[in-house]
Design brief:
The mean pLDDT is 93. This protein is an alpha/beta fold and 123 residues long. The protein is globular and about 35 Å long. Helix 1 crosses helix 5 and helix 2 packs parallel to helix 3. The longest helix is centred in the last third of the chain and has 13 residues. A 5-stranded parallel β-sheet has the order 2-1-3-4-5, with helices on both faces.
Length: 123
């Protein structure tokens, strides 16, 4: 299946992500901040990246900018995870390379559906 990197600094959300994707067959890698996530992404070349917008060290938008600036990672689909899904937030996510937004809080079923949607779209 797919290799997925999920950047999230909240341990409870990391637990939810692990539980949601445990039996999916996907190769899941968790990062606690954007810097750790960027290092994982450069090493693993995942099929899909999820990133919280608000993280310490490097936020999600900075991570998105770094991914899109490199030819090696520019084509990797990026989903921003955020509690604010207003139109302006969605536009901001798009400016930083986000292909989609997953609103917080999300359920395990919503996360699995988002993964399936993006992977079936040819990613």
């Amino acid at each position: 299946m797919a290799r997925i990197v999920f950047c999230e600094d909240d341990p409870m959300i990391q637990k939810l992500v692990r539980a949601a994707l445990r039996d999916s067959g996907h190769d899941l890698h968790l990062a606690s901040d954007g810097e750790e996530g960027l290092a994982l992404i450069r090493t693993l070349r995942p099929d899909l990246v999820f990133s919280d917008v608000s993280m310490r060290k490097m936020d999600g938008y900075q991570l998105g900018d770094a991914l899109k600036a490199s030819p090696d990672t520019a084509a990797i689909p990026l989903v921003f995870v955020t509690a604010s899904v207003q139109r302006s937030q969605i536009e901001e996510a798009t400016k930083h390379g986000g292909e989609s937004v997953l609103p917080k809080p999300f359920t395990m079923a919503e996360l699995r559906a988002k993964v399936a949607e993006l992977l079936s779209a040819g990613h």
